[in-house]
Amino acid sequence: MITLTTYKWVPDFAAPLMRAFRVRWALEEAGFPYDVRLVSLGPEQRSPEHLARQPFGQAPAIEDDGLILHESGAIALYIAEKSDTLMPKDRGGRERATAWVFSALNTIEPAVQELGSIIFFHKDAAWAKERRPQVEQFLRLRLGQLADALGDKDYLEGRFTVGDLIMSDVLRIIDSTGIVDGFPKLRAYRDRCQARPAFQRAMKDQMEGFAQPAA
Hints:
Mean pLDDT: 94
Shape: globular
CATH architecture of the largest domain: Up-down Bundle
Strand order of the largest sheet: 2-1-3-4
Number of strands: 4
CATH topology of the largest domain: Glutathione S-transferase Yfyf (Class Pi), Chain A, domain 2
Low-confidence stretches: none
Largest sheet: 4 strands, mixed
Radius of gyration: 17 Å
């Protein structure tokens, strides 16, 4: 059985946005049972035991039949390769689904994360107030390009894949800004992904896990 390592506690705003959620969601979509190992922020996350699982002392990480793997994108792809639900069987479909994972992480998420950093940590700083309009302008450019690529399809490749899982999860980071809502196709796409039963199960487990008192 796969063991997922994630944090025991994070601030409330971060709880639904932790990258470990992507792993939970992928596991739920694939129908794979899993255990959860909780690691505390601080000394435990810097312990040799945890660094052997995650070299940077972060989360998530997984262990599966002797394999130890870190980075949410790599883990999601690993799970997807074992599941027809998340990865097409034909070579072209597999490669394109994988490309969308990289598009989400390398093209969309950097702009999303920069805006998220401003919102969550620096919104009152003078430099952030000057920088935010530029970040939002660039992000809207990228989102418009993504909306064009999506077109009238339900999902990026017509059927749900690991690429949609990662892409829609990246879009969730800026839900509070309403920027995605300015692109009706992307709003419907995000909502369609979040309406999936596996998403709902994963989010329930994610939030219930963080609801436990921090030791």
